[in-house]
From TrEMBL:
<keyword id="KW-0808">Transferase</keyword>
<dbReference type="InterPro" id="IPR029063">
    <property type="entry name" value="SAM-dependent_MTases_sf"/>
</dbReference>
<dbReference type="InterPro" id="IPR050362">
    <property type="entry name" value="Cation-dep_OMT"/>
</dbReference>
<dbReference type="GO" id="GO:0008757">
    <property type="term" value="F:S-adenosylmethionine-dependent methyltransferase activity"/>
</dbReference>
<keyword id="KW-0489">Methyltransferase</keyword>
<protein>
    <submittedName>
        <fullName>Putative O-methyltransferase YrrM</fullName>
    </submittedName>
</protein>
<dbReference type="Pfam" id="PF01596">
    <property type="entry name" value="Methyltransf_3"/>
</dbReference>
<dbReference type="InterPro" id="IPR002935">
    <property type="entry name" value="SAM_O-MeTrfase"/>
</dbReference>
<dbReference type="GO" id="GO:0032259">
    <property type="term" value="P:methylation"/>
</dbReference>
<keyword id="KW-0949">S-adenosyl-L-methionine</keyword>
<dbReference type="GO" id="GO:0008171">
    <property type="term" value="F:O-methyltransferase activity"/>
</dbReference>
């Protein structure tokens, strides 16, 4: 068996809810890349294990990652940022359809770079970083400011289409992911794990305030 077969297996065994399947289909139709089923299920497990009550999501998309995180942490409030109002309208409908109470869904339409500085520091259990990859380092810095001690920043696509691990690959996004992973891995302020499922999931838990 190849690694590809194992990754396909990890995606294929996941059972998604009807709302997640619908959101994923809708996202594909409008060309938005949702987290894979294997990553989504991992997000749910992390959210559940953290007993997350407050989540920030950078990059709502059509709601796939939000639906997964709230499946793991059904009591959580999600604050999700996206530049596209149409994406968020579909995501809100999907979350409501999944019985997430309206008062726990806070969707902010805007640029993450403008919105993140306005959020309170050390106030969130989880921050998911999944918007424009050119700003991933900036968003993770914000994420680590926003999570409480013991909180976790999650970065899907951290292996960026298998390019991060390939020394022959160059480019700003690849370089930024390499820098991010290397710098965080050498930091005493966080615990870091890089899961190779899907397109990679970087998990960064803040252990020092
Ligand atoms: C990869 S998609 C998010 C997918 C979503 N997390 C999921 O798995 O269902 C990236 C989203 O980030 C949004 N986006 C791009 N640049 C942004 C920015 N500067 N600030 C906020 N959102 C941004 C896009 O509109 C898009 O909906």
């Amino acid at each position: 068996m190849t690694k590809e077969a194992s990754w396909k297996f990890a995606d294929d065994i996941v059972v998604e809810t009807t709302q997640i399947v619908a959101a994923r289909t809708h996202a594909a139709e409008v060309g938005v890349e949702s987290v894979s089923p294997a990553i989504g299920s991992q997000l749910a497990v992390i959210a559940a294990a953290a007993r997350a009550k407050s989540i920030v999501e950078i990059g709502t998309g059509l709601g796939v990652s939000a639906l997964w995180m709230l499946r793991g942490a059904p009591d959580a409030t999600i604050t999700s940022i996206d530049t596209e109002l149409e994406h968020q309208q579909v995501a809100r409908a999907a979350l409501l359809d999944a019985k997430v109470p309206a008062n726990r869904i806070r969707l902010i339409t805007g640029t993450a770079g403008d919105v993140l500085p306005r959020l309170n520091e050390s106030s969130y259990d989880l921050v998911l970083v999944d918007a424009d990859p050119a700003s991933v380092i900036e968003y993770v810095e914000h994420g680590l400011r926003l999570v409480r001690q013991g909180g976790t920043v999650l970065v899907p696509h951290a292996l960026w289409k298998d390019k991060v691990a390939d020394p022959a690959q160059r480019g700003d996004t690849v370089g930024d992911f390499r820098t991010l992973i290397a710098e965080l891995s050498g930091s005493d302020a966080v615990l870091v794990a890089l899961s190779p499922a899907g397109d990679g999931l970087l998990q960064v838990t803040k252990i020092v305030e």
